[in-house]
């Protein structure tokens, strides 16, 4: 089962375009300036199956652009990968927000997604001019897939 904290149907700040966002429950990193502290405790979210989550996304997303955020989605990696594969097979444009660094992201996951935001939020490095994230230590990549997977910072 997946544990989620909730969703929003339309966002302009969680990746390119108008995107629906699903928030995974739980993050054990415990960053001091976390903007989502209320959803970081595991066991306090809603438990749903991969199919239930997929059907929920189908209902809330009109344009098939979906961002998976948290919490820390990679702390539910097996279920994240299953959900992502299902979304990929159904031709969704997929973005993942993680507090992990790029080196910590499994290569397999990158194959199925279109964008990734990496790095935790650091209040001392806040920059309001950044498009899809809040602090300068974070990075946002578009994933281009040819013979090799190629990440382009945007
Ligand atoms: S990694 Fe992100 S969600 Fe997790 S505690 Fe840090 S800022 Fe919050």
Automatic annotation (TrEMBL):
<comment type="similarity">
    <text>Belongs to the organic radical-activating enzymes family.</text>
</comment>
<dbReference type="InterPro" id="IPR012837">
    <property type="entry name" value="NrdG"/>
</dbReference>
<dbReference type="GO" id="GO:0043365">
    <property type="term" value="F:[formate-C-acetyltransferase]-activating enzyme activity"/>
</dbReference>
<dbReference type="GO" id="GO:0004748">
    <property type="term" value="F:ribonucleoside-diphosphate reductase activity, thioredoxin disulfide as acceptor"/>
</dbReference>
<keyword id="KW-0004">4Fe-4S</keyword>
<dbReference type="GO" id="GO:0051539">
    <property type="term" value="F:4 iron, 4 sulfur cluster binding"/>
</dbReference>
<keyword id="KW-0560">Oxidoreductase</keyword>
<dbReference type="InterPro" id="IPR007197">
    <property type="entry name" value="rSAM"/>
</dbReference>
<dbReference type="InterPro" id="IPR013785">
    <property type="entry name" value="Aldolase_TIM"/>
</dbReference>
<dbReference type="InterPro" id="IPR034457">
    <property type="entry name" value="Organic_radical-activating"/>
</dbReference>
<feature type="domain" description="Radical SAM core">
    <location>
        <begin position="13"/>
        <end position="154"/>
    </location>
</feature>
<keyword id="KW-0949">S-adenosyl-L-methionine</keyword>
<keyword id="KW-0408">Iron</keyword>
<dbReference type="Pfam" id="PF13353">
    <property type="entry name" value="Fer4_12"/>
</dbReference>
<dbReference type="GO" id="GO:0046872">
    <property type="term" value="F:metal ion binding"/>
</dbReference>
<keyword id="KW-0479">Metal-binding</keyword>
<dbReference type="InterPro" id="IPR058240">
    <property type="entry name" value="rSAM_sf"/>
</dbReference>
<dbReference type="InterPro" id="IPR001989">
    <property type="entry name" value="Radical_activat_CS"/>
</dbReference>
<comment type="function">
    <text>Activation of anaerobic ribonucleoside-triphosphate reductase under anaerobic conditions by generation of an organic free radical, using S-adenosylmethionine and reduced flavodoxin as cosubstrates to produce 5'-deoxy-adenosine.</text>
</comment>
<keyword id="KW-0411">Iron-sulfur</keyword>
<protein>
    <recommendedName>
        <fullName>Anaerobic ribonucleoside-triphosphate reductase-activating protein</fullName>
        <ecNumber>1.97.1.-</ecNumber>
    </recommendedName>
</protein>
């Amino acid at each position: 089962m997946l544990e989620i904290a909730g969703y929003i149907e339309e966002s302009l700040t969680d990746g390119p375009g108008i995107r629906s966002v699903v928030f995974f429950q739980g993050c054990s990193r415990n960053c001091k300036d976390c903007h989502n502290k209320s959803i970081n405790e595991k066991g306090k979210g809603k438990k749903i199956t991969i199919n239930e989550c997929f059907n929920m996304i189908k209902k809330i997303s009109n344009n098939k652009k979906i961002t998976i955020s948290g919490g820390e989605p990679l702390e539910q990696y097996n279920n994240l990968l299953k959900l992502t594969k299902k979304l990929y097979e159904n031709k969704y444009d997929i973005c993942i927000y993680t507090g992990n660094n790029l080196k910590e992201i499994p290569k397999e996951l990158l194959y199925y997604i279109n964008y990734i935001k990496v790095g935790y939020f650091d209040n001392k490095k806040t920059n309001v001019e950044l498009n899809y994230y809040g602090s300068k230590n974070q990075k946002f990549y578009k994933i281009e897939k040819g013979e090799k997977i190629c990440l382009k910072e945007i």
